[in-house]
From TrEMBL, chain A:
The chain crosses the membrane at residues 20-49, 61-82, 109-131, 138-160, 166-187, 199-221, 267-289, 363-385, 405-434, 472-495. This is DUF112 domain-containing protein. InterPro entries: DUF112_TM. Keywords: Membrane, Transmembrane, Transmembrane helix. It comes from Devosia nitrariae. The keyword Endoplasmic reticulum does not apply. It holds the Pfam family TctA. The keyword Membrane applies. Residues 20-448 form the DUF112 domain.
From TrEMBL, chain B:
The chain crosses the membrane at residues 7-26, 46-66, 78-94, 100-119, 126-146. It comes from Devosia nitrariae. Keywords: Membrane, Transmembrane, Transmembrane helix. Residues 18-149 form the DUF1468 domain. InterPro entries: DUF1468. This is DUF1468 domain-containing protein. Pfam families: TctB.
Length: 505, 155
C-alpha cells in the first residue's frame, strides 16, 4: 500500500515547475530526435547525460523517461508521412502508415499511431508500477550465485538477439567487460590495467563511452555516407497537407481494431521489454506479426491496416515500462536507454534492487509518473498541437544538426568532470564504435558488457568465496541453476532451432 | 586473397582486438592479489576468462572472413570521417588553451566546411557559426553555471 501511495507522490512531484519543465522539454527533445531520420532517443539521452551531473536525480530521471517515451512514439511521424522511420521501432508503422498516407489518410494514420502509443505507453507504465513490488520480492530470493547466473543470462540474451552476428556481438560484450575491468578491482583495493598511468586508476567512466558510442560514432557514420543533397526532401514535406481534426481517430475505426489488439500489443511489448537486448523494434515486429496472424482482416495488412499500426505502436511504447523492470530491480539494463538511466542512478549514489523501491520510492516514482503523463497526455497533445510543425522540423539542415550534436557531445563530456581526458576518451570510443558499427559489431552489446561486466565479476568471485568452493557452486545453487537452464533454453530457441546461416558471424 | 581486403577494417578490427587482448592478457599476469585465495576468487579470474573467450571468438570471426568469398563494399568515402576526427582532435587540444569561444567557433566552422553547410553564403555561414557557439555557451555557462575555459578572461 505504501508503495502505491509513493507512486501518487510521484505525480505530485511532477507539478514542481523544474520537474514539469524537464519533462516537457525532454519530451519535445525526444520527439524531435525520434522523428528525425538518423537520430534516436538514445542519442538524445546520451547527449543529455552530462547535464544529469549538474541537476538532481529526480528531474534527471523524469527527463530520461519522457525522452524514452517520446522517442519510441515519434518515429511514426516520418515513418507515416515520408516512409522513413525516424526510429527503427517504427519500421512496421511505416509499412501500414505510409500506405494510408498515399490514400490521403496520413493524419488519420498518425492519430492511430499516437493512440496505440498512448495506450501501450500507459499500460506498460502501469504494469511496471503494479509488478515492481512483486519483482522486488523476487529479487530478494536470488542469492549471489543466482545473481551471477542472472547477469550471465542477460549478457547471453544480449548476444544471441543479434541474429546474424552472434560471434561479433559476443566480442563486443567481452570488449565492454574488459574495458570495465580498468581501474580499482571490484573486491580489493588494487588497481588493474592502468598501465602505470594515474588517469586510468579511477577506471573508465560511463559517460565518455556512451557519448563516444552513440554520439561521436553517429557523426562519423553520417560523415561517411554524407551527401549534401540527401536526407529528407523539404519540397515533399511542404506538399504534405495535414489538418489537425483528422488526427483524432474515429470511434468506428477504434472499435474495428478492437480493445484486444491494444491489450495484446501492450502485454507483448511489456514482456519483450523485460528481456535484455530485445528493444522496441522487436516488440513492434512481434506484436505486428501476431496481430496479422490473429486478424479477422489479414488481407488489409501491407495495404494500410490501422490494426497493424495499433499493434506495433502499442507494443513499442509498452516496451518502455518493461525495460525498467530488470534495470531497477536487478541492475540489468535491457537496452541503451535504460543503461544510461542506470548510469544516472549510480552517479547519484542509488543502487538498483528491492531497497530502491522500499527506501527511495520518492526518487523513482516521479520517473514512473513521467512515463504515464508522457504517454497519456503529452503524446496526443503534442501530436495535436505540434504535429504539422514536427514535420517541418525534420527538414532542418543536417550539416547544422550534426555540427550542433558534435559540440554538445564534446563540450558535454568536458563539463561533467571538467576533464580534457574525458573528451579524448569520447573521441577514442567514438572512433572504435564507428569502426565496430561499420563491421557489424554491436555497440549496444559493448555498452551493456561494460555496464554488466563489474556485476558479473563481483557475483562470480563472491559466490566462490562465500561458498568456499569452485565454479560448481553455480550448478548446485537452485536459483543459479534456474537461470543457467533459462539461458540454455533461450540459446536453444533462438540459436539452435534457427537455420545455420543465422548464426554466421 | 586480395591484399587490400586483408588491410581493410574487416580484418583490421579483429586483428587489432587480437593485439589489444594480448597486451591486456600480459598485464593480467602482473596483477598480484592482496589475499591468499584461489585463482577463481582473485582479480585475474575474469580478465583471463574474458581473454580466452575473446581469442576463441576472434579466431572464429577471422576464419569465417577468410573463407568468405568477398565482402560488401563500404558505403561512402572515408575522407569525411577522417577530417571530422582530425578536426575533433585539434578541437580537444585547443579547447583549454584557446578557450571555449574561439576553439568552438573554429571547430564549428571546420565542421560546416566538412559537411558543406552554407559554403556559398559566407555571411550566413559566419552567423550560424557564432549562433551555434553562443547557444551552447548559454546552455552550459549561463543556465548550468559551468566554468568553461576562457581566453584572457573572455569566453
Amino acid at each position: 500500500m505504501e508503495t502505491f501511495l509513493g507512486y501518487f507522490g510521484g505525480f505530485r512531484e511532477l507539478l514542481d515547475p523544474l520537474n514539469l519543465a524537464v519533462m516537457i522539454g525532454g519530451f519535445l527533445i525526444g520527439t524531435f530526435f525520434g522523428a528525425m531520420p538518423g537520430l534516436t532517443s538514445v542519442l538524445a539521452i546520451a547527449l543529455l547525460l552530462p547535464i544529469t551531473y549538474q541537476i538532481d536525480v529526480v528531474p534527471s530521471l523524469i527527463m530520461c523517461a519522457s525522452i524514452f517515451m517520446a522517442g519510441m512514439y515519434s518515429g511514426s511521424i516520418t515513418a507515416t508521412t515520408i516512409n522513413i522511420p525516424g526510429a527503427p521501432s517504427s519500421m512496421m508503422t511505416a509499412i501500414e502508415g505510409h500506405r494510408l498516407m498515399k490514400q490521403g489518410k496520413g493524419a488519420n494514420a498518425l492519430g492511430h499511431a499516437a493512440l496505440g502509443s498512448m495506450v501501450g505507453g500507459t499500460l506498460g507504465a502501469l504494469m511496471l508500477m503494479a509488478f515492481m513490488p512483486v519483482a522486488a520480492r523476487l529479487s530478494l530470493l536470488i542469492q549471489t550465485p543466482g545473481k551471477f547466473s542472472l547477469v550471465l543470462f542477460a549478457l547471453v540474451v544480449i548476444v544471441i538477439v543479434e541474429r546474424g552476428a552472434i560471434a561479433k556481438s559476443a566480442i563486443a560484450v567481452l570488449l565492454g567487460i574488459m574495458i570495465a575491468t580498468i581501474g580499482i578491482d571490484v573486491l580489493q583495493p588494487i588497481p588493474r590495467f592502468n598501465f602505470g598511468t594515474e588517469v586510468l586508476i579511477e577506471g573508465i567512466d560511463l559517460m565518455p563511452l556512451v557519448i563516444g558510442a552513440f554520439a561521436v560514432s553517429e557523426i562519423l557514420v553520417q560523415a561517411q555516407s554524407w551527401n549534401v543533397t540527401s536526407g529528407v526532401d523539404a519540397d515533399e514535406i511542404r506538399k504534405i497537407k495535414i489538418r489537425r481534426q483528422e488526427f483524432i481517430p474515429l470511434w468506428s475505426e477504434v472499435r474495428e481494431i478492437g480493445v484486444w489488439t491494444y491489450l495484446k500489443g501492450s502485454v507483448l511489448g511489456y514482456l519483450i521489454g523485460v528481456l535484455p537486448g530485445a528493444g522496441g523494434s522487436m516488440a513492434a515486429f512481434v506484436s505486428y506479426v501476431e496481430a496479422r496472424r490473429s486478424s479477422k482482416r489479414p488481407q488489409d495488412y501491407g495495404k494500410g491496416s490501422r490494426e497493424g499500426i495499433a499493434a506495433a505502436e502499442s507494443a513499442n511504447n509498452a516496451m518502455c515500462g518493461g525495460a525498467f523492470v530488470p534495470m531497477l530491480m536487478f541492475g540489468i539494463p535491457g537496452d541503451p536507454t535504460t543503461a544510461i538511466v542506470l548510469g544516472v542512478l549510480v552517479i547519484n549514489g542509488l543502487q538498483p534492487g528491492a531497497r530502491l523501491l522500499e527506501n527511495q520510492a520518492d526518487l523513482i516514482s516521479p520517473m514512473f509518473a513521467s512515463l504515464i503523463v508522457s504517454a497519456l497526455i503529452l503524446i496526443p497533445l503534442t501530436l495535436y498541437l505540434l504535429g504539422p510543425l514536427f514535420l517541418r522540423m525534420v527538414t532542418v539542415s543536417r550539416g547544422l544538426l550534426y555540427t550542433g550534436i558534435a559540440v554538445v557531445a564534446l563540450v558535454g563530456s568536458y563539463v561533467a568532470t571538467l576533464s580534457i581526458f574525458q573528451m579524448f576518451l569520447s573521441l577514442l570510443f567514438g572512433i572504435l564504435a564507428f569502426v565496430m558499427r561499420r563491421q557489424n559489431y554491436s555497440t549496444v552489446a559493448l555498452l551493456l558488457g561494460f555496464i554488466l561486466g563489474p556485476d558479473l565479476e563481483q557475483y562470480f568471485r563472491r559466490a566462490i568465496t562465500l561458498t568456499d568452493g569452485g565454479p560448481l557452486v553455480f550448478l548446485t545453487s537452485l536459483d543459479s541453476l534456474f537461470f543457467l537452464l533459462l539461458t540454455a533454453a533461450f540459446v536453444y530457441v533462438i540459436v539452435i532451432r534457427k537455420p545455420k546461416d543465422s548464426i554466421a558471424a | 586473397m586480395d591484399r587490400r581486403r586483408l588491410l581493410s577494417a574487416e580484418f583490421g578490427l579483429p586483428i587489432s582486438l587480437l593485439i589489444l587482448t594480448t597486451i591486456y592478457l600480459a598485464e593480467t599476469f602482473r596483477l598480484r592479489s592482496q589475499m591468499s585465495e584461489s585463482f577463481w576468487e582473485g582479480p585475474r579470474a575474469m580478465p583471463v576468462l574474458a581473454c580466452v573467450l575473446m581469442y576463441a571468438l576472434l579466431v572464429l570471426v577471422l576464419v569465417r572472413q577468410f573463407r568468405a568469398a568477398s565482402t560488401a563494399p563500404a558505403e561512402g568515402s572515408a575522407v569525411r570521417p577522417i577530417l571530422v576526427t582530425v578536426a575533433t582532435a585539434i578541437y580537444i587540444f585547443a579547447f583549454e588553451p584557446l578557450g571555449y569561444g574561439l576553439s568552438t567557433i573554429l571547430f564549428v566552422s571546420a565542421l560546416f566546411v566538412i559537411f558543406g553547410f552554407k559554403l556559398e553564403k559566407p555571411i550566413s555561414f559566419a552567423i550560424h557559426a557564432v549562433a551555434v557557439t553562443a547557444v551552447f555557451y548559454v546552455l552550459y555557462a549561463v543556465l548550468f553555471g559551468i566554468r568553461l575555459p576562457e581566453l584572457y578572461g573572455i569566453i
